[in-house]
Amino acid sequence: MRISATAISLIVDDVPASSAFLREHFGFSEEMAAEGFASLKRADTGANIVFLSRGLPTLPEHQRNTHAGGLIVAFEVEDLEGEFERLRDEGVPITMPLTTEEWGERAFQVTDPNGVIVQLVDWKG
């Protein structure tokens, strides 16, 4: 098997709101979009993030009404404190404060308008 691309698809209620959140606060660009669908990319992430509208009829029936709950979209960054300050200054609510785990992970979280958790992380060890 050869994998040529990676995407994370998340089912949300308001696709434009989640798309705007990643574009405005994380520098993603929208590659494709249609009713109930948006695919976003950053050249440095190696993966697309796709938002699908809850109830989208092209999804299998057992998936249509699920929500992207319980998932964390994590981005490793070089300047964690700088990103924390930037997002706070932009008015993005910090939903998990900057923490340090005993294994060396440092992280904080924000949550988009649909409840998608975005975690920024670095490793100090």
Basic shape: globular
Widest beta sheet: strand line-up: 1-4-3-2
Helical segment count: 2
Spatial separation of the terminal alpha carbons: 34 Å
Order of helices and strands: EHEEEEHEEE
Task: Using the coordinates shown, work out and report the CATH topology.
Answer: 2,3-Dihydroxybiphenyl 1,2-Dioxygenase, domain 1
- Sheet-strand content, in percent, reads 35-45%
Features:
single chain; 4-stranded mixed sheet; 2,3-Dihydroxybiphenyl 1,2-Dioxygenase, domain 1; globular
Report on the architecture of this protein:
Residues 2-123 form the VOC domain. Strand 6 and strand 7 form a beta hairpin. The chain is α/β, with parallel strands linked by helices. It has a four-stranded mixed beta sheet, with helices on one face. It has a four-stranded mixed beta sheet with strand order 5-8-7-6, covered by helices on one side. The protein has one domain (8-122): 2,3-Dihydroxybiphenyl 1,2-Dioxygenase, domain 1. Helices cover 18% and strands 39% of the residues.
